[in-house]
Structure formats: C-alpha cells, structure tokens
Amino acid sequence: MNVRRPDGTHIGPGESGELFIRGIRGVSLFKEYAGNPEATSDSFDDDGWFATGDSIIMNDAGDLIFGDRLKDMLKVGAENVAASEIESVIMATGLVSECAVVAQPHYMLDEVPAVFLIPSASAGSNVADEIVAACQRDLADFKVPRTVRVTDELPRSTLEKIAKAELRKLLEPITE
Fold first, then answer.
1. 3-state secondary structure (DSSP) of residue 50
2. DSSP assignment, residue 11?
3. pLDDT of amino acid 100
4. Are 33 and 43 in contact (CB under 8 A)?
5. pLDDT tens digits for 119-167?
C-alpha cells in the first residue's frame, strides 16, 4: 500500500493523497471491472498498483487516516473540500432527513458546493435559508453551498447509495 500526490510521488506527514494498493489480480485483488476494460485500465498503473479513489491523510505521527472518496471531493478554487464535511453540518441541524453535496461547475472557482436535501418533518418552509445560515455559521465561506435544492427523494444506485452523478447532471454551471 502507498499514498500518492496527484503527480505520483509519495506523501509525507501533514499531507493527503490517493491510496494505492497492490496484490495478485484475481486472487487477493479484483481482476477487472466486468465488461469495462477502459475503467480497469484507468484504475491500474503500469506497475500493477490499483488506485482506490480514497483520499488518505498522513498525520504527523505517520498514521494514515481515511479522508473521503476522491469523487466526493470538490475543488473550490485552490481548496479541496470534502462533501462529507458539509453534509455533516447540514445533518446536524436536524432540519433534513437526508442530503447529498455535489460539485456544481463554476466559471471562476472551477467547482462550488451544491446540496440536494429532503427536509425532516419538523422543517419549516424556509429550510433552504436555514441550511445556508447553518453552513455560514459553521463552515468557511468557500464551503457554503451556492445552490440548495429541496426534494422529496434522492436518486439511488443499484446498491441503494445516493446517485451523486445523477444529481450533478441536474445542475447548470454558474457562469457569472
């Protein structure tokens, strides 16, 4: 196992990168993505290391701490933002029963947070404003969702996870 920066070099204490693992394909590591040779090729480097898509942080003691799935990380300007951090703040309000934060394309910042949420039974009609206010209180400005969509349900994958890719398709880029 190793953890690498985007340029392929190994991280040091206080840094984060992507987790890579290696094993015997088809024995201790999966052989391929069924019916998707392109995804298989994209996921393995030339030396047989598998890019897991997990963001890992190395603390000062050299311990590795799971960060988030890289596909659930947003790049807001020069800052990496974990969707799970924003989702935690939103869920802590008690105003939503479920939410998903995704990246919305932005003309200047590359991406900004957008949230889709299902309000709880106790939420009022101004739940979107209350969520933004909670995020403004508890998060840095660049982590505050620019778009809040209130919905009755969130799309699901075959494994019943929230289909964030489907949510991203519902967002128009912010152009000004």
1. strand
2. P
3. 95
4. yes
5. 999 999 999 999 999 999 999 999 999 999 999 999 998 878 899 989 9
Q: Please answer whether residues 55 and 69 qualify as being in contact, where contact means their C-beta atoms are separated by less than 8 angstroms.
A: yes
The pTM (predicted TM-score) of the whole model is 0.72
Neighbours of 3 (CB within 10 A): 20
Residue 110 pLDDT greater than 90, yes or no:
yes
Question: 25 is written with which tokens?
Answer: 């394909």
Q: Domains of the chain (ranges plus CATH)? A: 2-62 (2.30.38.10), 72-169 (3.30.300.30)
Beta-bridge partners for 57? 16, 65
Tokens of 173: 């880029």
Round to whole Å and give the CA distance between 111 and 142: 10
Percentage of the chain with pLDDT > 90?
Answer: 55
DSSP character for 156?
Answer: B
For residue 79, CA distances in Å to 64, 73, 142 come to: 21, 10, 8
Q: What is the mean pLDDT of residues 55-84?
A: 84
